[in-house]
Amino acid sequence: MSLLLSAPILAAIVYAAIAGTYLLVIPLIVLFYFKARWYKTGSVERVFLCFLAFFFFPGLLLLSPFFNFRPTARQI
User: Fold this and answer.
1) pLDDT for 13-34, tens place per residue?
2) Is 55 within 8 Å of 30 (Cβ atoms)?
3) Measured between alpha carbons, how far apart are the two ends of the chain, in Å?
4) How far apart are CA 19 and CA 17, in angstroms?
5) What letter would DSSP give residue 76?
6) Cα dist. 13→9, 28, 56 in Å?
């Protein structure tokens, strides 16, 4: 058991977990928060949304091709 959780392997697992959280999990939550709140926000919340987009930009860039959050077309 000590061989399985040696220091280099444990460090690699921790780094992979942090990278996965930063690049996939939190940006996914941020994308859906954008979708829910984009047209209803005030000025302070809009600044917060822009901060989230700036801070999690690499993850948003990775996930954005897979989501289509454009408004639906209007009926004429």
Assistant:
1) 999 999 999 999 999 999 999 9
2) no
3) 67
4) 5
5) -
6) 6, 21, 21
